[in-house]
Amino acid sequence: MSGHAVVGREDTVREIVNGAAGAAGAADDAGRGPAVLTVLAGPAGTGRTAVLGEVACEAARRGQTTLTLSLSRHGRTVPLHAAARLAAALTRLPVAVRRQAPARRGPDREAPAGSTGIEQVTAELARLLLARPGLLLLVDDAQWLDASSRQVLEQLVHRLNRSTAHWVCAVRSPVAAHLPPALRRLVAEGAARVVTLPPLPRQVADRLAADLLQARPDRALANRLRRDSRGVPAALHAAIDGYAAAGALKVADGRAHLLGHAGPAPLPPGHPLLARFRLLPEPVWTVAKAAAVLHPLHELLPRLAAVALGLDAGETVRALETLVEEGILRTAGRGWRFAVPYWAEALAGALGPYERRELARAAVTALWSGEAGPVSDDYRAEQLMRCRPLGEPGRIGGELLALGTAAMLRTPGPAARWLAAAVESAAGARQRAVALAEHANAGCLAADHAAAAHSADQLLRLRAGQLPPGAALDAQLVRVTALWGLRDVAAVRRIAAGEQQAGHDAASRAVGRAIALCLLGRWDEAYRRLAGARGSWAGDAAAAAVGELLLSCAGAVTGRPGRLRQLLEAPGAEWAARCPELWARVRVGTLLVCQETEGSERVLAAARLSAERLSGVDRGLLAWQRGRWDEALYHARTGTGSEAASGALQHAVAQILLGRGRPAAARAALDAARAEPATSGHLLDAMDAEIAWTLGDPERAEAHVADGLAHAAEDAVVTGTADLWLIRVWLAVSRGDPAGAREGLAGVERAAALLGTVHGELTALLARVAVHRDPVVADRAVALARTLGQPRALARTLSVVAATGCGATSLLSEAYELYGGLDALLYRYRLRRLMREHDVPVPHRAAAVSENERLLATLIAEGSTNRQLATVLQTSEKSVEGVLTRLFARTGYRSRVDVATAILTGEYPAGAGR
Predict the structure, then answer these.
(1) Residues facing 616 on adjacent strands
(2) pLDDT, tens digit, for every residue of 179-208?
(3) Where is this region: Disordered (predicted)?
(4) How large is the greatest C-alpha to C-alpha distance in the chain, in angstroms?
(5) Digit-coded pLDDT (tens) for 488-529
């Protein structure tokens, strides 16, 4: 099958073509031949035209001659319009086709004397058709057949019932009962059959989306597209176009993701979907656009639309009835709703500025008067924003300010738009300053750094008396963060160096400079400068709240255990007084970097926040630590948030990819992370070391460990260094270097003592187990790992303890199950080898064989050679060749390219492409 539009319709195409080929079959018991007319029915957007086109292509491939006739609304009032067009088209068929026609004698060649015009046209068309046996006639939009041509069609089907001609009439019909009467009669008589195009089922809709995106949509995007389109192909296609135009789609690692809460952009005027909608006559087209705005107001829609756009009330109601007949709207209780949610998006995007303002003003007036019932805050804000040039500026500005502020953390993108409108509609300098402050914060949260910086600059130009309390400091902090988001690293460095003022007073300058240093990864310098300048900011309540929080964050990262405890404990009144949710989120982000999973969740619980309120980066870290690896990858690909956490998240992404047998992708993730400024290079070095060791290159692994420790020392950062020292311990033990192992152990224990975290303590215990093989220490390590709540850390602990002989070999089975829950193919493969060495049975042997093949296929998709495969799989090249042969034989793939393609497109057996 060809083209996106017939994805999921392949069986329908074959059914129609096979039915046409069998039209000349034997007669039934009543003396009738098989049905010679197929009615292809379905509501708007289900792909009837595309299916007809594919039917024509498939029939041509089978050597059958086809003739296509497309009808339009404009010809339905002209008698015999369609019949005349068909006759003209038949006479233009190539002579070679006509010469194939056997001559036929009888009354069908001429109309009887005294016959009507309809009978004469029917006789002429019958003559032309009988002269062309085997013809397949495709009529698109047959609902626009004029009345006379419908009679002709009905008579032709009866007269030519035993001929070899076959008709396929595509009809827009939301339900079968809406077929034209003539077609219903033919179906009832058995002369016609109905083939309905329903919306695409879930899996087929996802396949069409993947085809259009050239990438597999992730779960969130697939759910959004299905919700928008209801499985209607035209809506799915247009929604993807809209999201792409809005810059809301991102493709990474073969997956397509939806960024944030962005909605689709308006379709361009020439888009095929809008072109089809524009075929609606007036005032139906205008009412359809009005319904896109007013349908949430239920029964008020007809009256408000008529008043806003100067329409006749009766015509408006009749237009709505037409839209229901067309399958675009459905009646719903007291009002109407769109059969496909995206139709409302597309039609609203086609509104002109005047129409949009008038409809929004009508909606807002009805809401303010109490005439309209309750609506969502999002709907209210959107209409307020659009009617503000014609409404009451002070009232509109106040409502938009309140709605935008309330939605800022929930949906920062829309909130930023509403707050920008609130700035323009503000009543007085004070309200405008508050709106500017809130818009700057919302822009920062929505990653609209240019807008955030612009509002912050405007705030900083105002006089101190015009600003609400703390607004000047907030504006400066937003400005520094926005500069970083815009990747103006030079400006951030100037602020960090004190060369560019970071505020109008000493307090904001000190805190702003500390923020800049933290963003640059210079945590120790930020801590020392902020602590040294305490006298300049401690007396300012707003600056003191930020300063103490920054000291705690920087202290935790640089190994000042008392500061870590401050992050874990409930903040004092000076912290809670201003932006308590924001402060809680900053604390959680820092704790996640320190791998204090339970501590971060305690802070969330104390602040009564759900994890959904965290930034994408922090949600990714939490998901990684809790063993929800697919979710972690999603947030890594789409999230924005704390720069302090971005390096930690990329380290997590690389670990996930390595564990799933994708070392090349893991390295690519690390390389991409290094291209960004200040992304905790020592954490990336730790993963590079683990990858090198996995690939059988201990010398390179040791070099990466040395680089990581040097980078950490240069930045005076302690978080993550215990893991570097642990790798050094394992490398020394594997090469039989007791002195090196003891040196590594000392390094782990120093870092753990400075960190003061549960993860640091566990890392130190694992290093001691590796060096001293102490069962008592091993028991403590297992018990501590069970409290940590990190499946990967627990599985690693169990594996190390069992492999060193310090614990029961049954721990290997538990680790094996934990890795299974993470879909960690490579870790599971290596653990199977370890289990066999210790005579621990591997469960589900057939599943293990399949998993081995899936790992092999994944490594092939990475571009691994046989030698590299043998190194990763800890086997010989000859063994790899044997496994490859069995893989090709079992799956039917003929080459490495076929296997790689199946992995990348997700067609390989379940889970392979994750």
Answers:
(1) none
(2) 788 888 888 888 888 888 888 889 889 989
(3) 98-117
(4) 116
(5) 989 999 999 888 765 667 888 888 899 999 988 899 999 999
Global pTM reads 0.79
Burial of 569 (0-12, 13-18, 19+ CB in 10 A): middle
Q: Phi/psi class of residue 217: alpha, beta or left (left: φ > 0; alpha: ψ in -120 to 50)?
A: beta
Sign of CA dihedral 348, 349, 353, 354: negative
Q: Is 431 buried (19+), middle (13-18) or exposed (0-12) by CB count in 10 A?
A: middle
- All domains of the chain, ordered by start, with CATH? 4-196 (3.40.50.300), 202-265 (no CATH), 845-914 (1.10.10.10)
Residue of 328, 287, 330, 293 whose CA lies nearest to 310: 287
Cα–Cα dist 740/737, whole Å? 5
Q: Does the pLDDT value for residue 226 go beyond 90?
A: yes
pLDDT tens for each residue of 663-699: 999 999 999 888 887 678 899 999 999 999 988 899 9
DSSP H/E element including 819: helix 810-821
Are β-strands 329-332 and 335-338 bridged in parallel, bridged antiparallel, or unpaired? antiparallel
Tokens representing 688? 């590079």
Encoding tokens for residue 580?
């308590």
Does residue 811 contact residue 827 with C-beta atoms inside 8 Å?
no
Amino acid making up residue 230: R
Structure tokens that stand for 60 in this block: 């041509």
Place of tokens 């899936």: 854
Q: 250: which strand partners?
A: 257
Strand positions, DSSP E, 535-635: none
Query: What's the CA gap between 264 and 228, in Å, rounded?
Result: 10
* pLDDT, position 34: 64
Rounded to an integer, what distance in angstroms lies between the CA atom of residue 379 and that of residue 392? 18
